[in-house]
Design brief:
6-stranded parallel sheet, Rossmann fold, 11 helices, single chain
Length: about 290
């Protein structure tokens, strides 16, 4: 059976689709971006890369897909571009995920969408969980300069580091990309414990391994949060200006935390906000930690 899966977008969105990719009965060709290949190349062998969104590039991709003669394309992107690609690829059959958000619940929806195919090409999702060794804890504290609103105050991260030291007394690794180096460097001086700053020092594959081997990850709403969760590392996602219902990390081993005084009705903002605001003053990870039973 020759199948392909379409998933472009940001790194976190691609990571969130990984449980579905792993559940496919046949190793798919992944139609993705260069960054998607970097994340997935240790698990999948065949990739077709869309280098940019230009119309000519899309047409060249369609020509390549026609030559490949896939039996099925599973469209996990579900936008106009991916529908266009599927329609003109001459594939025998395709299923799509139009209107589906990438979160914990949506992953199960993807399974159901794929089962709509008459070709029966997907297994149940792997939801088995085994406790991790007490190696180290990862704090993914940053966010891109575009999303400064996701950044917690230094004092809040200090509070979190104190709690984790008292509870587990494990080394803490700080992660982030090149755009966050200065912020994380300043932040690291305020934390308590055995702190190692890895911000800007890891490739995507190295980051994936660090998150996989961690005992626990505490992260802002980010790609690292989603990568950690799909690698079955206990994960606490910290939310404020973004929607913890839509963007919840995957798995029963993952929890979300938000300021229940700021969000008195336990409902997220109507739409994600880049405005810096007092979202995190009273956020507390004590209950999520207790719920994880680590």
């Amino acid at each position: 059976m020759k199948i392909a899966v379409i998933r472009f977008s940001a790194l976190g969105d691609i990571a969130a689709s990984m449980p579905v990719l792993r559940a496919l009965k046949y190793k798919p060709t992944i139609i993705t971006t260069s960054i998607g290949k970097e994340l997935l190349k240790d698990e999948f062998d065949d990739f077709i890369i869309l280098e940019n969104k230009k119309l000519l590039t899309v047409f060249k991709l369609i020509v390549k897909l026609r030559k490949e003669k896939f039996d099925l394309i599973v469209d996990l992107q579900g936008n106009d571009r991916s529908k266009f690609i599927c329609k003109f690829s001459n594939v025998k059959e395709y299923v799509n995920s139009t209107g589906v958000s990438f979160n914990q619940k949506a992953t199960f929806i993807f399974r159901d969408i794929a089962k709509k195919s008459s070709l029966n090409i997907i297994n149940d999702l792997d939801d088995n969980f085994y406790k991790k060794e007490k190696t180290y804890i990862v704090l993914n504290c940053g966010s891109s300069p575009k999303w400064l609103s996701k950044r917690l105050p230094f004092e809040k991260w200090k509070e979190i580091s104190i709690l984790l030291k008292e509870k587990y007394n494990l080394p803490i690794y700080l992660t982030g990309d090149n755009s966050e180096i200065e912020y994380i460097e300043d932040l690291s001086k305020n934390l308590v414990g055995d702190i190692t700053n890895l911000c800007g020092k890891t490739s995507i594959q190295e980051l994936k391994k660090i998150l996989t081997n961690a005992f626990l990850v505490v992260s802002t709403d980010s790609a690292s949060m989603h990568i950690s969760a799909v690698q079955k590392t206990p994960t606490i996602g910290l939310f404020g200006p973004t929607n913890w219902i839509i963007s919840a990390p995957y798995g029963s081993w993952s929890k979300v935390s938000y300021d229940k005084i700021y969000f008195k009705d336990n409902k997220p903002l109507n739409c994600n906000s880049m405005e810096i605001n007092d979202y995190f003053t009273n956020i507390d990870i004590s209950k999520p930690l207790d719920d994880l039973k680590l």
